[in-house]
Design brief:
- It is found in: Cell projection, Cilium.
- The protein is an alpha/beta fold.
- It has 4 helices and 6 strands.
- Strands 2-3-1-4-5-6 form a 6-stranded mixed beta sheet, sandwiched between helices.
- The longest helix is centred in the last third of the chain and has 31 residues.
- The protein is globular and about 55 Å long.
Length: about 180
């Protein structure tokens, strides 16, 4: 059974924990409390299997605290990560400015492929859902960008996340198959 490690990273108060709980069908948190370090959520998704072989997959979603005081822990968090989801609050201009730093630290430095990264522009309840005005600079504009609004259209983000998980598992499965073939030849 394949097991994938996915990091949820991004600025403080971007909605990482709320999204992580929703996408893993974990408990709801009604009051804001900053994540201290990391919170690991383990889950399975019946819609995601390994290369259509029917083999189940397990996931670890690492909900990483966005405070810079945890920066010294980031290398340990990144170890053996298969994917990174950068979550930001699209309504806060400073979050947009921080995006390149998160991308550099969690995607470029550990040499992950852009396909292993997804951006989520999270819109908090009551903030509106302005999908049209978000322009990102290179290299962020090459990444998959999904808008989330759990109040208006929660299933859209769930479906996009399942697609993302499938792409991560397919990549892992192909890599494992290549490794097995190289051993046999």
């Amino acid at each position: 059974m394949l097991k994938a490690k996915i990091l949820f990273v991004g600025p403080c108060e971007s909605g990482k924990t709320v999204l992580a709980n929703f996408l893993t069908e974990s408990s709801d948190i009604t009051e804001y409390s900053p994540t201290q370090g990391v919170r690991i959520l383990e889950f399975e998704n019946p819609h995601v299997t390994s290369n259509n072989k029917g083999t189940g997959c397990e996931f670890e979603l690492w909900d990483c605290g966005g405070d810079a005081k945890f920066e010294s822990c980031w290398p340990a968090l990144m170890k053996d990560a298969h994917g990174v989801v950068i979550v930001f609050n699209a309504d806060i201009p400073s979050h947009r400015k921080e995006m390149e730093m998160w991308y550099s630290c969690f995607v470029q430095q550990p040499s992950l492929q852009d396909t292993q990264c997804m951006l989520i522009a999270h819109h908090k309840p009551g903030s509106g859902d302005d999908k049209g005005s978000l322009s990102l600079s290179p290299p962020l504009n090459k990444l998959k960008l999904v808008h989330s609004n759990l109040e208006d259209d929660p299933e859209e983000i769930r479906m996009e996340f399942i697609k993302y998980l499938k792409s991560i598992i397919n990549s892992m499965s192909e890599s494992r198959d290549r490794e097995e073939m190289s051993i046999m030849t």
